[in-house]
Amino acid sequence: MKEGLRFLGIDDGPREAEKLIGVSYRGTEFMEQAGIIDQKPDTGDATEDIIELYHMFEQDIAAVFLDGISFNGFNIADIEKISEELNKPVIAVTSNQPDKDAVRKGLESADLDPSIVSELPDTHSFGDVFIQFAGCSKEKAKRFTEKATLQGNIPETVRAADLIGNAFRKKD
Known about the structure:
Blueprint: E1 6-12, E2 19-26, E3 30-38, E4 44-45, H1 47-54, E5 63-67, E6 70-71, E7 75-76, H2 79-86, E8 90-94, H3 100-109, H4 115-118, E9 124-126, E10 129-134, H5 138-148, H6 156-166
Parallel strand pairs: 1-5, 4-7, 5-8
Antiparallel strand pairs: 1-2, 2-3, 6-7, 8-10, 9-10
Helix pairs in contact: 1-2
């Protein structure tokens, strides 16, 4: 039997593609499954789409990694709700410090409900990345992030989902 925890990474494709991509990895070495669902941009909420995508994966997932909390424009992931629904840790990872005020203003300018922003978990610095997490302690979120990262700062499963998403980019 192969060793290592299984992680699911989720990212979006280019906005015009309207896709949400999930990739599962065992540790940092074995990609085991990929899934893609359609996601309309700027609906305000990515929570149910992420839960739907999770259920496409048959493996025992130890934790879910998200590339930030915003997908396909202003579709915000409520990571606490996702964690509660799936009974799994959910860790949002980004290389840029999230700006809650900018997200709130963006939601308002798109005529979407900005109240979810006040419910988002705090952001923590971890090396060169920032994480928000639900369903686990800060120490466990960092440990999972370390176990899921082979090189650089982003977990392999998120990096793979990003690469697949980029395949939907229209060429000029």
